Amino acid sequence: QDCGELELAPGGNINVRVVDSEDTPVENATVSLLADPVEPVGTLYFQTGKANQGGEISFPNSLIQLHQLKVTAPGFLTKELEGYQPNPSKDYWNHVTLERGFSIRGLVLEADRSPAVDTPIYIIRKGHTAFNRPHRFDRGTVLARADAKGHFEITGLEDLNSEYQIIARRSSTVWAATDLIKAGSEVSISLP
User: Fold this and answer.
1) Which has the closest alpha carbon to 167: 127, 136, 100, 101?
2) Are 160 and 102 in contact (CB under 8 A)?
3) What is the spatial distance between Cα 180 and Cα 134, in angstroms, rounded to a whole number?
4) What is the pLDDT of residue 4?
5) What local confidence, expressed as pLDDT, does residue 37 receive?
6) What is the pTM of this model?
7) What integer pLDDT is reported at residue 155 of this predicted model?
8) Cα–Cα distance between 81 and 44 in angstroms, integer?
9) Contact at 8 Å (CB) between 45 and 34?
10) CB neighbours of 91 closer than 8 A, spacing ≥ 6?
């Protein structure tokens, strides 16, 4: 259960523990703290870091006027929390529970129907500048790679209603793309 407020320990340490819905620590979750403008400079105060194996991260010497916490992790929905009050206990840990996002699963095959092992998989959301031009889509984050059996899964999609195009792209001349699909779909892609 989320505490709903960020607690400040003596000495200015902010402690955050990130878990999933089964209370399993989320390693490498990115945790960001944002404060109101700091006087007299008038600039925003921002700290960010990665959670350890136990899903924990501490921010030493943080400012008291923090008001927002943002937590992201691959495969999970982004969580943003606001309106925190300080707590004098230095042993207090703020628990943040992340929910898994929606996913798209698929299979990538070579022209001879064998698994297309280690093929990079990309996703384009309808409306993106590269949409319907996947042959030109050569920059971006590889969201998945086909495993030894040609299977892949893209996780952490936040919207079941948005439409996507999945691209398996080995090079500028060897690629294939799906028609429009929605999160929760299973697809099969055959490379030429």
Assistant:
1) 136
2) yes
3) 12
4) 47
5) 54
6) 0.59
7) 79
8) 17
9) yes
10) 9
Q: Which residue has 């529970």 as its token pair?
A: 97
For tokens 């093929």, what's the residue?
A: 119
Closest of 154, 119, 124 to residue 140, by C-alpha: 124
HSE toward the beta carbon, residue 125, CA cutoff 13 A: 11
Label each residue of the chain as H, E or C.
CCCCCCCCCCCCCEEEEEEECCCCECCCCEEEEEEEEECCCCEEEEEEEECCCCCEEEECCCCCCEEEEEEECCCECCEEEECCCCCCCCCCCEEEEECECEEEEEEEECCCCCECCCCEEEEEECCCCCCCCHHHCCCCCCCEECCCCCEEEEEEECCCCCEEEEEEECCCCCEEECCCEECCCEEEEECC
Q: Which residue carries 């042993």 as its tokens?
A: 91
- Averaged over successive runs of 10 residues, the pLDDT of the chain (192 residues) comes to 46 79 92 66 67 88 65 84 61 84 90 94 73 47 84 81 85 85 89 92
Q: Nearest-CA neighbor of 76 among 16, 145, 146, 20? A: 20
For CA atoms 129, 141, 80, 164, give the dihedral sign: positive
Query: Which residue in this structure is represented by tokens 């300080």?
Result: 86
Residues in the chain: 192
Q: pLDDT at position 137, please?
A: 47
Structure tokens at 182: 């929605």
| Beta strand pairing call for 163-169 and 14-20 | unpaired
